[in-house]
Design brief:
The chain is an alpha+beta fold and 180 residues long. The chain is built from five helices and eight strands; from the N terminus they run E-H-H-E-H-E-E-H-E-H-E-E-E.
Length: 180
């Protein structure tokens, strides 16, 4: 295996979904096997890991500490073509706001390198696997929806070696109204 492009990403972890989606992701989403938890992406790709420094971390801290935590519900399954099975939030707007805030502060890093006109907030369950396996996962998941959660923090994930494994670099709490 050749060298892996080392990348970083900002994600909103969805621990409330792990019990429901974890076993499907372990088999049907290669990123799960590389250490990426169930999540909704805030910004990918982000600053290359070797360039992440205290100034970048402080700016993320500033932006995200001023952003309110929010409740969400993942209410349905959806697809990108026949390639990607994902869970859709009932209200994608709070996720979009997080992406816009971070991208505005770091304009050199557009979401998904600018490949898509509309960035759709989602939790990937299966990516590029056998269609019948992904459809079976969809049927199993539909019985457990909606999934409820609270967005409390954004995690900076990084790849720092050629294995492609992702690790948590820093977590950034969102503001909890009424708490100081």
């Amino acid at each position: 295996m050749g060298p892996v492009l080392r990348r970083s990403a900002l994600v909103l972890e969805v621990p409330e979904a792990e019990a429901t989606v974890g076993r499907h992701r372990d088999v049907l989403d290669a990123s799960a096997r590389l250490g990426v938890p169930a999540h909704v992406t805030v910004l990918f790709p982000f600053v290359p890991p070797a360039q992440i420094n205290p100034v970048i971390v402080a700016e993320l801290q500033r932006i995200l500490a001023g952003t309110a935590a929010f409740d969400y519900r993942l209410t349905r399954t959806a697809w990108f073509g026949d390639e990607v099975l994902w869970l859709a939030p009932e209200d994608p707007q709070p996720f979009r706001i997080l992406t816009e805030l971070v991208h505005t502060a770091f304009p050199a890093f557009p979401p998904y390198e600018g490949q898509f006109d509309d960035v759709v907030p989602h939790l990937t369950v299966a990516d590029g696997c056998d269609l019948s396996d992904m459809q079976a996962a969809e049927r199993a998941l539909e019985q457990h929806l909606p999934l409820r959660g609270r967005a409390r923090k954004v995690t900076l994930m990084v790849q720092t070696d050629d294995s492609g494994t992702w690790t948590r670099h820093t977590t950034f709490p969102l503001a909890e109204p009424g708490r100081s």
